[in-house]
Write a structure and sequence with these properties.
258 residues, 1 helix
């Protein structure tokens, strides 16, 4: 009976994860298509969301960079603001067969809780601050399969915080596990890993799966449904002599399972 209770509680947590640490919007790259033929231009949107994957606010255009990465070639992508959908939009030209990566970086922005709610800026500069100042920096990668699959899914692009799949998404069967390695400043990181798929829930900050890495920074996520998936991690570091007290980094990986 005790084992059954433990299993039930874990399953409940895995299906409806809603954590206080996910209070800020998630930074997500959402391509129109995740699998295309060579020579295709893939439109995508950068969304800022609590409900996945519908944008709820538009990221500041001057704080966001995007690029297309294939092998050793990095091509910057111009973004345009879309106030109607609250997104930043772009298009990635996928010319060569194999996996390409659309990469995004939301530069660090500092927020402080005050008696009037959260405000942008350091507590050193904001009146009525009631908590520490946190700088939020975010990274996202979206895997695009161009024609046939290759080993490009596992390419490390050297983001400060990065999720690297160790399993080819094209080979994943529903109800099997995918492996991911979490890298922080070039070193494996053992941390909690959240995952969900587009359409799983309309509740804010709700994920389909929760797990934790082993000591080598490797996590296994059970893929329970076909569609567009996102895996998400976060790490925090204390800052000394800086404008912020805590530097929060987040990373998301977007991929498709058929």
């Amino acid at each position: 009976m005790f084992k059954r209770c433990k299993f039930f509680l874990f399953a409940l947590m895995s299906c409806l994860v809603c954590l206080s640490s996910v209070s800020a919007h998630e930074f997500i790259i959402k391509p129109v298509s995740m699998s295309v033929e060579p020579g295709t231009s893939v439109p995508f949107s950068i969304v800022s969301a609590h409900v996945f994957m519908v944008s709820q606010e538009m990221e500041p255009a001057d704080k966001v960079e995007a690029s297309m990465i294939k092998d050793d070639m990095v091509t910057p992508i111009k973004l345009s603001s879309n106030p109607t959908l609250m997104t930043l939009d772009g298009a990635a030209l996928c010319q060569k067969p194999g996996y390409s990566i659309i990469s995004g970086h939301r530069k660090g922005m500092i927020y402080t809780k005050t008696t009037q709610g959260y405000k942008k800026g350091s507590k050193k500069k904001i009146k009525n601050a009631v908590s520490t100042s946190k700088k939020y920096e975010k990274f996202c990668k979206a895997l695009i399969k161009v024609g046939r699959a290759d080993d490009g899914y596992g390419k490390i692009i050297n983001d400060k915080l990065e999720i690297v799949p160790l399993t080819d998404p094209a080979d994943v069967q529903i109800n099997s596990e995918m492996e991911f390695k979490i890298i922080y400043n070039g070193t494996p990181l053992s941390t909690e890993v959240l995952a969900t798929y587009d359409g799983f829930s309309t509740n804010p900050n709700t994920y389909a799966y929760l797990t934790k890495c082993n000591d080598q920074g490797v996590a296994k996520v059970k893929i329970s449904h076909p569609g567009t998936w996102m895996v998400r991690v976060q790490t925090e570091s204390e800052q000394t002599g800086q404008d912020c007290d805590i530097h929060v980094m987040r990373a998301i990986l977007v991929f498709e399972v058929k």
